[in-house]
Amino acid sequence: MCILMVIAMSSIALAAEDPVQPNAPRNNVLRYFDYVFTGTFTFEMVIKMIDLGLVLHQGAYFCDLWNILDFIVVSGALVAFAFIGNSKGKDINTIKSLGVLRVLRPLKTIKRLPKLKAVFDCVVNSLKNVFNILIVYMLFMFIFAVVAVQLVKGKFFHCTDES
């Protein structure tokens, strides 16, 4: 329950950031909060790795896709923090953009709430059907685009406006 509250506070802090003025006093305060949140998530990840083991047996940390997502989010935040302090005038915006992975933090709640996980699983399963419908839709769009090009055949090559 404590981690759920940290995830919620982290999401609120992320929403409160001002992207237009990156050096605003509010962003500086929120950056310190982000350090605390990232430290909490790192501590949770390390404790989980020690408890579950890494890879070598069933139920290990890296055998669960949600734990892999958690590892990517936390590692991205740690790498971004490491390079924010060491920029030294170099253009490392690509590395700094790893901080965008913080947006995925609310996804950590899915594993902790079984009903939310059931809803998420239903959405993922329905996306397979939506993808098939999208393919049929694109096929129809292509057919009608080819028919329209054949019907028009350059008839709109000149202006019809008299002014």
UniProtKB/TrEMBL annotation:
<keyword id="KW-0407">Ion channel</keyword>
<keyword id="KW-1003">Cell membrane</keyword>
<keyword id="KW-0107">Calcium channel</keyword>
<dbReference type="GO" id="GO:0098703">
    <property type="term" value="P:calcium ion import across plasma membrane"/>
</dbReference>
<feature type="transmembrane region" description="Helical">
    <location>
        <begin position="130"/>
        <end position="152"/>
    </location>
</feature>
<dbReference type="GO" id="GO:0008331">
    <property type="term" value="F:high voltage-gated calcium channel activity"/>
</dbReference>
<dbReference type="GO" id="GO:0045202">
    <property type="term" value="C:synapse"/>
</dbReference>
<keyword id="KW-1015">Disulfide bond</keyword>
<keyword id="KW-0106">Calcium</keyword>
<dbReference type="Pfam" id="PF00520">
    <property type="entry name" value="Ion_trans"/>
</dbReference>
<dbReference type="InterPro" id="IPR005821">
    <property type="entry name" value="Ion_trans_dom"/>
</dbReference>
<dbReference type="InterPro" id="IPR027359">
    <property type="entry name" value="Volt_channel_dom_sf"/>
</dbReference>
<keyword id="KW-0812">Transmembrane</keyword>
<dbReference type="GO" id="GO:0007268">
    <property type="term" value="P:chemical synaptic transmission"/>
</dbReference>
<protein>
    <submittedName>
        <fullName>Voltage-dependent P/Q-type calcium channel subunit alpha-1A</fullName>
    </submittedName>
</protein>
<keyword id="KW-0109">Calcium transport</keyword>
<keyword id="KW-1133">Transmembrane helix</keyword>
<dbReference type="GO" id="GO:0043025">
    <property type="term" value="C:neuronal cell body"/>
</dbReference>
<keyword id="KW-0732">Signal</keyword>
<feature type="transmembrane region" description="Helical">
    <location>
        <begin position="68"/>
        <end position="85"/>
    </location>
</feature>
<dbReference type="InterPro" id="IPR050599">
    <property type="entry name" value="VDCC_alpha-1_subunit"/>
</dbReference>
<keyword id="KW-0813">Transport</keyword>
<feature type="signal peptide">
    <location>
        <begin position="1"/>
        <end position="15"/>
    </location>
</feature>
<keyword id="KW-0677">Repeat</keyword>
<dbReference type="GO" id="GO:0005891">
    <property type="term" value="C:voltage-gated calcium channel complex"/>
</dbReference>
<feature type="transmembrane region" description="Helical">
    <location>
        <begin position="35"/>
        <end position="56"/>
    </location>
</feature>
<keyword id="KW-0472">Membrane</keyword>
<feature type="domain" description="Ion transport">
    <location>
        <begin position="2"/>
        <end position="158"/>
    </location>
</feature>
<keyword id="KW-0851">Voltage-gated channel</keyword>
<keyword id="KW-0406">Ion transport</keyword>
